[in-house]
Amino acid sequence: MYLRSISMSHWSEGCSGAVLLGLLGFCWGSLSPRTSFFIGDSDRALTHFNRPDARNTTTLLLSEDGDTLFVGARDALFALNVSKPSVMEMIRKLDWESTNEPNFCQYVDKKGECHNFIRVLQLINATHMYACGTFAFSPRCIYINLQAFSFDSTAESGRGQCPMSPYSRNTAVVVDGELYVGTPEDLWENQPGISRYLSQEGRRNLKLVENRLKKSTFISSTFVPSENKVYYFLNDVSTDLDKYIAPHIAQVCTSDVGGQRILWKQWTTFAKAGLVCQSAGSLPFNVMQDVVALPPLQDFNPDEMLFYGLFSSQWSVNSKHSAVCVFRLGDIKSVFSGKYRSLNGKIRSSVTPGTCGIPSDSDADLNFVKENFITMASVNSAEKGFILMPDHNYSNLVALRTKAANGRNYPVFFMLTESGFLHKVVLLGKGPHIIEETQVFMQPQSVKKVLLSVTKDVVFVGTSEGVFQVPVSNCSFHWNCGECVLAQDPFCGWDPVQGVCSRVSGNPAGIRQDVESGNAMEACDLSNGSSEVVKYPSPELLPVLLDKMVHLRCPKASNFASLRWEHSDGRQLDRDTYLQQARGSLQFPALPDTLGQYLCISLESGYEQTLYSVIVMQDGPQIGSRNFRGVLVLSVLLAVSLCLIALGGFCLLKQRHYLHAQAKTLSDRCEAREQCEQQSFPM
């Protein structure tokens, strides 16, 4: 299996066993992203839609052509133009605020969330969309005209179609214009329901028999055309004191019309099976967080459709880890066609519960399936289908396949962490490799949404801080062949003709790539004196004052690379003078013998490259450092003294001129009036 042996690249060694309740829990190694991008990094600029009137933008839906993103928010809906890369422009906004009595809402919800949170957005046909909101704990649903982006009906009760609380999880999918939902139908989530609404051709809306689900939390739902079934993924919580959480998969047939007498307006094809996500000898990962379906490759059996489930654990030994388990459609079908638990041994029938096409008037058969709806066996993950993701708590998952230069198809996951990072993960033969992580939000989020646009090659992340758009590939970030290969990104390969790392497409003859091993020396033909032109960074000039500390930092590099500084002539740095730290910083005093050129060099998987070059030069007169400070002080003192002497002489001269002028003026006045007495003035 992928991770049942823990011999993986970039995994830390050293584990100790732990025994809990008689079961062995493993201490797993760590799995880290190769490259990290944070909010504000110029190397990974994100497209962000955010407005003061756009809050809780966590319900996302793409138009059929992928050019428009519909966003359900708090008290409003938005239509965004996403037809071009790195663009999210608002086309229109549709306000939909709650008109309920606020006193009732505030009585129900002490947090004061008396708003209309849009929780259901589904395309009904080419002209209309269907939306449901919590409407201040009294759900409402309404039709929206897509062309005008305006309401096309009066809002009707959405009870059973939409949760009452904005914090409750729900799921919905439309099949041939009919709405299949899974949602709690009461405020306290004690009445989970699976229902069909907007039924076509005179068919009845259907609901689930009471007490078929145990305080369930709905995770996702998927329509499988080859089976004409809708599969629901959910977590059941036991009513026992231990509150054990059990992941399940449930199914209903889209052809179900309910019974004529027994199961009137209720599902006759509902069945439920357990899901097991567990590696040998360890406690299960029993809390399902998200599920995504990947259809089989072209010309493959439909039973090869895969469901990737994201799980966490309620056990403390696994609390810091996540796991991805892979379930085959063929295995799911086998469990649902097998034996069922008998809740009433007196009722017998030859029909298999969950079978599509049970006659609606067959009371005996309908009584049997009503009492026997839980399978005996559980659905186990497929072979090599347990994928451990240690040291990360993930909440959301989307997946796709892409063909690498070697012709092999690789599953690629985009997984959202609770801390706000979107991890891009490729599933290699030896296990998962996190290509990069991109920060998309900073504050903790209780409700999030991740949506993949295959036609636009982007991932949308809906949060309370707005909607972010992240490209599925970031090939241009890799500036040389070595970096391009070391990334082990199946989307990216080095084009030696163009001299760029570019998106792999078609038949990429000559493209250099090594997804499995990331061996840059071999892929870039650098092992035996390569003809590959390696571009070294131009040196920067850094003027410094002597006797001051110099601080140098290496630019962002791979988290897997080791960094070191050295002189441009290859001389190693003296440890008594230089302080080097692991993440590429260097400190040393500015002295005449420490001036010169320095190189920051990275080493990763045998590939060595210069990331940064700097020339440290003296700022100011080129004289000895010991004399310079004294000369500078004496020069300043001499200049000040000369200024004071000059100022004193100037002031004395001004005083003499002033006294002469005063004496002459007074003498003239006295002589004119003939009243002058002899006076003497100091000259």
TrEMBL record:
Instruction: Give the location in the cell.
Output: Membrane
Q: Name one Pfam family in it.
A: Sema
Q: Where is the Sema domain?
A: 34-472
Q: Give the matching Gene3D superfamilies.
A: ligand-binding face of the semaphorins, domain 2, YVTN repeat-like/Quinoprotein amine dehydrogenase
Note the InterPro entries from the entry.
Answer: Plexin_repeat, PSI, Semap_dom, Semap_dom_sf, Semaphorin, WD40/YVTN_repeat-like_dom_sf
Give the record's GO biological process terms. Answer: axon guidance; neural crest cell migration; positive regulation of cell migration; semaphorin-plexin signaling pathway
**SMART domains per UniProt:** PSI, Sema
Q: Which residues cross the membrane?
A: 631-653
Q: PROSITE patterns this protein is in?
A: SEMA
Q: Which UniProt keywords apply?
A: Disulfide bond, Glycoprotein, Membrane, Transmembrane, Transmembrane helix
List each coiled-coil range.
none
Q: Name one GO molecular function term.
A: semaphorin receptor binding
Q: Which SUPFAM superfamilies match?
A: Plexin repeat, Sema domain
Q: What GO CC terms are in its UniProt record?
A: plasma membrane
Which PANTHER family is this protein grouped with?
SEMAPHORIN, SEMAPHORIN-4A ISOFORM X1-RELATED
> What is this protein's record name?
Semaphorin-4A-like
What organism is the protein native to? Answer: Paramormyrops kingsleyae
